[in-house]
Amino acid sequence: MSEQVLMDLVKAVALFFLNPVWLVAVVAAVGLGYFRVKRERRSFHVRLHPGLTEMKRVLAESWLPALVLSVLISGVGLTVDASWLVLVSALAIVSMMTFYYQSASPIYFAALAFFGLYAMQQFAGDFNFRGWSPADVDLFGEIALTVPVIAGLLLIAEGYLVRKKAAAYASPFLTKTNRGLRAATFLSKRLWLLPVVFLVPGDFMTAFAPYWPQFTLGATAFSFVPVPLIIGFSQVARSSYPELLFPKMGQAIGSLGIIVVVFGAFAWWMPIVGWVALVIGVIGRMMVTIIVAVKERKGGFIAAPQSAGVVIAGILPESPGAKLGLVPGECIRSVNGIQVSNEKELYDAIQVNAAHCRLQVIGRDGEVRLMQQVLFRHDHHRLGLLVVR
């Protein structure tokens, strides 16, 4: 018996990793890194982070929210119909293939899958696939409560990831200003995969793993089904620093998730409120994106060229510039006592003293400070700085 249970566990894990959502997410994350590297090299002739960074972080940053979600969903007993999970997965795959990750919030997938089932009931009620029909799903029953609550919890998880992780690998690139100059803009385009365990009525898993854990409540059996969910995020920051903008954006998304959970809970007494909760979530998430995008377009560039000095757009990890504590948006006025106003002058001034570098830097707050760093042969010849030019 123990060998069979172990074999069922292996089958379930294999079923998870063979899920098209997982496979497409890995390919999409590799694509994100590839296009980011191309964009950075087009602007600065060097990439900021390795091309596989996004792929390595696709699961590493999201396993904790996924664990919390699995415990909450399974522990509270929030059941979902398998057809809803299938539609959510299909929508996620389509979204990842488009690389338009502003539409990859889980609230969109959850709501579209829910209302997609309703549309199927209205226009394809006679559809039948291996004994399943859209008419079998009671959208005014328990699912009207569980789907909005789960969607709200996913929004809270999205808010957490955006608040904590979105700014970490924001990618700088150069763009033209209204005056024809080139300024730095920061793009955070991320993809997270969350392996979440759902409760599904029926013997969904027993077809693949006969000894997979189940429990029975009344006359209904429930299966624990591991499903890979994706959360995509894409936002440009040009008038605000990423580490200031994205935490605020994540907080707004998380607060919206709490509102959706609260409204969804009222569906226990009035199922139609669950429908309203999903609509509120979709409209609210769209408004967060639109408000931030409009604000960033109207504001000026935080990393624009200046008449005196060289503005930093990015710093290579582990470089002398990173060890100095330089950050994007700061302006280098002089190097080794030599005033600089462009990238060539900066490079020439660094070579004046090949063993020691002294910088006069104008911080983000406008304050002047002096910094110095010992240089070694293996160090980057330009301090590892990506500058506005």
Structure, described:
Keywords: Membrane, Transmembrane, Transmembrane helix. With 389 residues, this protein is of the alpha+beta class. The chain folds into two domains: 2-298, no CATH class; 310-387, Pdz3 Domain, CATH 2.30.42. Helices cover 48% and strands 20% of the residues. The protein has eleven helices and ten strands. The protein has helices spanning 2-17, 20-44, 53-60, 63-76, 82-98, 106-123, 143-165, 242-265, 272-298, 320-324, 343-350; strands spanning 171-176, 182-201, 214-217, 220-237, 310-315, 331-335, 338-339, 356-362, 368-374, 385-387. The longest helix is centred in the C-terminal third of the chain and has 27 residues, at 272-298. It starts with a helix and ends with a strand. The model has no long low-confidence stretch (mean pLDDT 86).
Q: Domains counted in the coordinates: how many? A: 2
Helical run tally: 11
Cα gyration radius (Å): 25 Å
Rounded mean pLDDT score: 86
Low-pLDDT runs of 5+ residues are none
Rounded to the nearest angstrom, the distance between the terminal CA atoms is: 68 Å
